[in-house]
């Protein structure tokens, strides 16, 4: 994918209960992907979601947010 190292982070809304995902949004602009991984198992393989699909997901979550 790239020689750049993803900068992983959890949402500020995470309550640190161990059921979180982490994303590395720093690759979205340069490579068009948003890596997503399980915060409990950070060394396991991660998903690569297109930046467009991830943006649609976030927009959908915001639309249904209470």
Secondary structure topology:
Elements: E1 21-23, H1 28-31, E2 33-38, E3 47-50, H2 51-63
Antiparallel strand pairs: 1-2, 2-3
How would you characterize this protein structure?
It is a single chain. With 66 residues, the chain is an alpha+beta fold. Helices cover 26% and strands 20% of the residues. It contains 2 helices and 3 strands, in the order E-H-E-E-H. It has helices at residues 28-31, 51-63, and strands at 21-23, 33-38, 47-50. It has a 3-stranded antiparallel sheet with strand order 1-2-3. A hairpin with an 8-residue loop joins strand 2 (33-38) and strand 3. The chain is flat and about 30 Å long. The N and C termini lie far apart (36 Å). The mean pLDDT is 85.
Summarize the structure.
By secondary structure, the chain is of the alpha+beta class. Helices cover 26% and strands 20% of the residues.
- Strand arrangement, major sheet: 1-2-3
Which series of helices and strands comes N to C? Answer: EHEEH
Low-confidence stretches: none
> How would you sum up the global shape?
flat
Helix vs. strand class? alpha+beta
How far apart the termini lie comes to: 36 Å
Fill in the keyword field for this structure.
66 residues, alpha+beta, three-stranded antiparallel sheet, 2 helices, 20% strand
């Amino acid at each position: 994918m790239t020689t750049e190292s993803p900068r992983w982070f959890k949402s500020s809304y995470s309550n640190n209960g161990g059921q979180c995902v982490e994303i590395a949004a720093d690759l979205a602009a340069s490579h068009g992907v948003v890596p997503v991984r399980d915060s409990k198992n950070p060394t396991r393989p991660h998903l690569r979601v297109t930046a467009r699909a991830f943006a649609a997901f976030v927009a959908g979550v915001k639309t249904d947010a209470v």
